[in-house]
Structure formats: structure tokens, C-alpha cells
Design goal:
InterPro entries: AAA+_ATPase, ABC_SmlMolc_Importer, ABC_transporter-like_ATP-bd, ABC_transporter-like_CS, Mo/tungstate-bd_C_term_dom, P-loop_NTPase, Sulph_transpt1, TOBE-like. Keywords: ATP-binding, Cell membrane, Membrane, Nucleotide-binding, Sulfate transport, Translocase, Transport. Its EC number is 7.6.2.9. The protein is α+β, with helices and mostly antiparallel strands. The protein folds into 2 domains: about 5-230, P-loop containing nucleotide triphosphate hydrolases (Rossmann fold, 3-Layer(aba) Sandwich); about 235-310, OB fold (Dihydrolipoamide Acetyltransferase, E2P) (Beta Barrel). Helix content is about 30%, strand content about 30%. The chain has 9 helices and 17 strands. The strands form 4 sheets. The protein has a 6-stranded mixed sheet, sandwiched between helices. A hairpin with a 2-residue loop joins strand 9 (about 200-205) and strand 10 (about 210-215). Helix 2 (about 90-100) packs across helix 3 (about 105-120), helix 2 (about 90-100) runs parallel beside helix 4 (about 135-150) and helix 3 crosses helix 4 (about 135-150). The N and C termini lie far apart (about 50 Å). The chain binds adenosine-5'-triphosphate. Adenosine-5'-triphosphate binds near residues 12, 37, 39, 40 and 43.
């Protein structure tokens, strides 16, 4: 089911946490809400879940206005960063909990819990207790528990936030596969642009209580709507009003009409990538990201004079992208 947020605002005292936020999460999609700490991501998720009420605006799920409904009548599954498992219950009992309180028949509970444990790859752990699970396994159990009651939408707030980078990476790939399998509309809150870019169909970038842009991962990266978005979804260098991604900085060995004179300050190998720190004649500093092959071709060394083509830079003073002319 789709989620539609229309013109939602929310203040805490005099602090405006959300200002006129609108967002559509299409049915079956995996959409990420991406933004820095404090931008209002969790507040938006909590409003959709019904844990908070908006001051203005409306929220609908599957075409039904749920703005005035309590959480339990919205049929949402929720998973947070620090999942509160029932410690005295086994994994099986934790996953079965929601079905038991809904008084579902025993056979149905047994079948469903079995299926869910398969889905989250915890079948072999059904009779363990939460204290015997790793962080990644606990979060998978949390997902199984959220899915048990067949939510119409799944809301995930930094579900892998507390885990180390390697486990996070594994769970990301796993979540994407799970989503493709069960096709439940999913909204994922994260401050990690790599996480959002890797698994989401669409990303809503938030900044200071507003949504700055909603687009596909490629769309955000290639056509950022604002300087904030450009800086948040990838690396950028600034040269005066111009913003450019380091891999778009072209280094030339001979002068050309559009190129600026610069000095190589340092060449650093970062595995296959190479970082070349540059000082432009006018005093601006920037860096170029090259491949090792490109570096070998250019034979760059510190102190060398080169020419920098910034024609792929952008400026956000005016709405359209402005290529630099000489
Ligand atoms: N119940 C509350 N009372 C007062 N202020 C709140 C409350 N909930 C959130 N805020 C404030 O609203 C702002 C947005 O909070 P929110 O938790 O939505 O941010 P976030 O983007 O999820 O950040 P993080 O990634 O750090 O969790 C913050 O400045 C926060 O302090």
C-alpha cells in the first residue's frame, strides 16, 4: 500500500521539527529518508506510525486517511535501531508474540512463525534466547516480529545503526532481497548515504525539517537540486561559486581555453583510486579523483604545473546547471 504524506508540520514547543513535508511512497517500493542528525527523519516516521500527531497536514496509507487513527489501527510494522526484545522469551516466542495477543489459532501461528524464521534465516535459532544472538540476528528477529502481523507498510528507523560496518553491509543486501521477495511498501530512515544509495528505489533527502529532493539514487547524484543534496550524497569540492565532484575534475598537461592553471600539491594512492590535491593559481584548493591508470598516463608528481578543466562543475545560484566558461 502506498503512503502519502501531505503538507505535514510538527513543532515541539517553539522548535519546528517538520515544515510542510509532503512525500509519496509508492506501493511496493523501498524508499529511504536520508538526512543528517536532527533533520526530522525519525519525527516523520513516528508521525506515519501514529506515535506522534501532526500539527497540520494529513497522512494516508493505502488511500485511507489515518491522520486521526491510533498506531494499532494503522497496520504498520516498526523496527528501531535498539530493538527491545523480550529477554525471557525465545526467538520463536518473540516472533509469535503479536499473533498470540491477536489470539490467532495455534496452527496458524506455528506455520507463520516457521515461515518468517525461514525468511529471516533464523530457523536454526528458534529456541535460543535473545541474549544468545548477535546484533545482526537480533535485528533480523525484529524484522520477523514486525512482519508477523502482516503490516501494510514497514517502517524502519536506522534498523542497522548499532551494528558494525561489515554486518550492516550484509544486512543491507539481505533487506533488499527480503523486500523484493515480500514486496511490502517500506520506508527506511538512515543518515548513511551509502546505505540509502545501495538499497533504496527512491530517496527523500531531508534538511532542517524539510524535504529537499525526492529522486532515484542516480537522479540525486547526477542532478542534485541543491548544494545541500549535492554535498550530502557524494563528495564535492568548492571553487568559488562552483561545485564539482572530484571525479569530474579533469587534469590536463597542456593549456586549453577553458582550463585553469594549477599546481599539484600531493598525490596519494587510495587503493585503486588516486587523490590528487591541487592548488589553483587564484588560491583555491581542490582535489581530483583519478584511477590508477589515469595517474600512470598523466605521470603526475608533487610540484608539477597542470591545467584544470572545471567544465563539469555546477552552481546552484540559478536553477539550471551552469557549465564554466573560460
Ligand atoms: N519529543 C520531542 N520533544 C522535543 N524535541 C524533539 C522531540 N522529538 C524530536 N525533537 C527534536 O526534533 C528534531 C528532529 O528530531 P528527529 O529525531 O526527528 O531527528 P532525526 O533526523 O531522526 O535525527 P537522528 O538521526 O539524530 O535520530 C531534533 O532537533 C530533536 O531534538
Amino acid at each position: 500500500m502506498s503512503i502519502v504524506v501531505e503538507g505535514v508540520s510538527k513543532s515541539f514547543g517553539s522548535f519546528r521539527a517538520l515544515q510542510d513535508v509532503s512525500l509519496t511512497v509508492p506501493e511496493g517500493s523501498l524508499t529511504a529518508i536520508l538526512g543528517p542528525s536532527g533533520c526530522g527523519k525519525s519525527t516523520l516516521l513516528r508521525l506515519i506510525a501514529g506515535l506522534e500527531r501532526p500539527d497540520a497536514g494529513a497522512i494516508s496509507i493505502g488511500g485511507r486517511d489515518v491522520t486521526a487513527l491510533p498506531p494499532q489501527r494503522r497496520h504498520v510494522g516498526l523496527v528501531f535501531q535498539h530493538y527491545a526484545a523480550f529477554k525471557h522469551m525465545t526467538v520463536w516466542e518473540n516472533v509469535a508474540f503479536g499473533l498470540r495477543i491477536r489470539k490467532r489459532p495455534k496452527e496458524e501461528i506455528a506455520r507463520k512463525v516457521g515461515e518468517l524464521l525461514d525468511l529471516v534465516q533464523l530457523s536454526g535459532w528458534a529456541h535460543r534466547y535473545p541474549s544468545q544472538l548477535s546484533g545482526g540476528q537480533l535485528q533480523r528477529m525484529a524484522l520477523a516480529r514486525a512482519l508477523a502481523v502482516e503490516p501494510k507498510v514497514l517502517l524502519l528507523d536506522e534498523p542497522f545503526g548499532a551494528l558494525d560496518a561489515k554486518v550492516r553491509g550484509e544486512l543491507r543486501a539481505w533487506l533488499r532481497r527480503l523486500h523484493d521477495e515480500i514486496e511490502v511498501t517500506t520506508l527506511l530512515v538512515t543518515h548513511d548515504q551509502e546505505e540509502a544509495m545501495e538499497i533504496a528505489d527512491a530517496i527523500a533527502v531531508m534538511h532542517q525539517g524539510r524535504i529537499e529532493q525526492v529522486d532515484t539514487p542516480d537522479g540525486l547524484y547526477d542532478y542534485p537540486a541543491s548544494e545541500f543534496v549535492m554535498g550530502f550524497v557524494g563528495q564535492t569540492c568548492r571553487v568559488g561559486d562552483l561545485l564539482i565532484r572530484p571525479h569530474d575534475v579533469r587534469i590536463l598537461l597542456a593549456p586549453s581555453r577553458a582550463a585553469r592553471r594549477a599546481t599539484v600539491r600531493r598525490v596519494a594512492r587510495l587503493g585503486y583510486d588516486v587523490r590528487v590535491d591541487l592548488l589553483l593559481e587564484d588560491g583555491h584548493e581542490l582535489w581530483a579523483q583519478l584511477s590508477r591508470d589515469e595517474l600512470l598516463e598523466l605521470e603526475l608528481a608533487a610540484g608539477q604545473e597542470v591545467f584544470i578543466d572545471l567544465s563539469r562543475a555546477r552552481t546552484f545560484d540559478r536553477p539550471e546547471a551552469l557549465p564554466l566558461s573560460a
